[in-house]
Amino acid sequence: MMRASIFATVLGLGVATPVWAADEVDLSAVVKTACAGVADPGQERSVPLGRIAEGIFFQIGYPPSRLLGTTAVAPEAYLQLLVDRVVSPPATMDRASRQALLHYVRQLGQELAPGSSITPKARGLRLTSPYPADTVGRPLWLFEDAATVRIACMPAKPRAERPVVVAQDGTPIETPVIDSLNEPTEIPRLGLVRTVTSLALTGDDRKKAESATIGIKRIRTEEDDGSTKTTTTLSFDGTLGLRLTGDQAAYPIFLYTNYTLSRDRTKPASALGPDERRDDKDTNGLAIGLSIDDVALPFRASLSGQASFVSDYVKGARRGVGSIFLTPGWMPTDLGICGLGKLKPIAISSIAFRTQCMVAGEIDYSHVFRAGRADFKEHGNFLSTGIVVGIDLVPPLFEKSGVVSSFRYRFLPTVSGTAPDVRRIEAAFKYRWWVADASAIDFGFTYRRGEEFKTYTMEDALELAFGVIF
User: Fold this and answer.
1) What letter does residue 43 receive in the DSSP assignment?
2) Closest CA to 374 of 277, 448, 454
3) Residues 195 and 126 in one domain
4) Is 20 exposed, middle or buried (0-12, 13-18, 19+ CB in 10 A)?
């Protein structure tokens, strides 16, 4: 009963309706986005309302790429479309994002009012046009009156210029989706990452993608007799996915194959016992399947699903697996060390980064086709439910390459049938270079401890790792 209640608790998290507080509105980040490349060290500069709208959409965790997809539009039309979407949000926008959008726009309008007694988080912006007399009852007046409203960025320290989108005869050469933020904009048809869930990440979210990883570790020990033994661990963990749906599809679907290998070898090799094999402690598993991501649910949550055929080449096991991941639709919240439902900007002296916490519920149902030497019942079924929690660290909004880090804890007890429980920690700390629009390489350290899900092999390894995303 205790095990079964874990997932029920996760479901309850998705139904709860958080209450917004005024101090959750971070307009300083909006100003930074809007005034990048506009603010001048010596004088005020006019800023289009579309840039302010762009900053708001990023801050509420709803990047413009979700509004435009890969549709090519001229720069002026792009900015006007963002203003229009503030006044009339798209029908596909979830309730939490709509509420966050309203809070940001209302707060900004109040702080720009003459004689405002509110602590000016929007310091850096100034209303240069006359303040309308009919703003009472119109929380969106700033964008509803876009034709007459004029905003200026106050003098500030120089910032990096925005890339310019060039158009010839009204035909855009470059799609200005997140153009000013130097973020990945391409939606890859064929992708290589570490986890299935990373395949669907695009735009600013792609910075959180986990890279396909090759790891190595060598340990040299001296025996009592003076001889030396060297143990080498080699590992690979990656997912190759083919996008089956179009760029504008509401729910991306992928055909994927995920392969995990980890093997320890010692030289000189020790003698084996009568029932031992050299690869008994290896991880060697393959999953081939289909995935669907980000299906919106009516109770403010999103659902992702996977159906796969899993092979364990060490134990000889074969099984079919159906998985469901439920992510609550959090109202953007500041938890101090991270944002929930959004990336939280953090600056320590000259070091800047963003962090985001995540919580998801998980249900897995497996049918065993062949148990082999695995701890399964031959031709049996088993059900596992649990939770995944974690935190991601990525570079600031205006930077692409930089330090990335992640931590995940997965607790997946078996509630019906015969199979081991999964308790696993995975962590990574790397420096990532983006070598193309949506492709990157990284280098650093990875750590894993606990049961690997495809093979249920116990692992405990800290490794140097080289990673690839494309």
Assistant:
1) S
2) 454
3) no
4) middle
Best CA proximity match to 18, nearest among 327, 299, 297, 333: 333
261 lies in the same domain as 144: no
Neighbours of 8 (CB within 10 A): 10
Q: Which of 181, 215, 239 is the last residue of a domain?
A: 181
**Position 143 pLDDT exceeds 90:** no
Burial class (CB in 10 A: 0-12, 13-18, 19+), 83: buried
Cβ contacts of 462 within 8 Å, gap of 6 or more? 217, 445, 446, 447
Cα–Cα distances in angstroms (integers) from residue 310 to residues 70, 255, 288, 318, in the given order: 35, 14, 7, 6
Q: How many CA atoms lie within 13 A of 155 on its CB side?
A: 3
Q: Is the pLDDT of residue 306 over 90?
A: yes
Q: Which of 410, 328, 422 minimizes the C-alpha distance to 383?
A: 422
Q: pTM for this one? A: 0.65
**Strand pairing partners for 303?**
295, 326
Are residues 116 and 257 both part of a single domain? no
**Of the residues 149, 181, 213, which one is the last residue of a structural domain?**
181
Per-residue pLDDT at 185 = 52
Give per-residue burial for 415-424: e unless 16+ CB within 10 Å, then b: bebebbebeb
Per-residue pLDDT tens for 340-358? 877 788 888 888 888 989 9
**Is there a single domain that holds both residue 91 and residue 25?**
yes
Task: Name the residue with higher pLDDT: 365 or 129.
Answer: 365
Task: Give a yes or no: residue 5 inside a domain.
Answer: no
CB atoms within 10 A of CB 392: 22
CB 307 within 8 A of CB 293: no
Structure tokens given for 467: 């990673």
Round to whole Å and give the CA distance between 196 and 392: 17
The rounded distance, in Å, linking the Cα atoms of 150 and 32 is: 18
By residue range, what is the domain housing residue 146? 15-181
CB 395 within 8 A of CB 372: no
Total number of domains in the chain: 2
Same domain for 320 and 383? yes
Please indicate, yes or no, if residue 2 is contained in any of the structural domains. no
Q: Is the pLDDT of residue 198 over 80?
A: yes
Rounded Cα gap, residues 81 and 52, in angstroms = 12
Residues 280, 391, single domain; the answer is: yes
* Phi and psi at residue 24, to the nearest 5°: -85, -10
Q: How far apart are CA 430 and CA 442, in angstroms?
A: 6
Same domain flag for 203 and 73: no
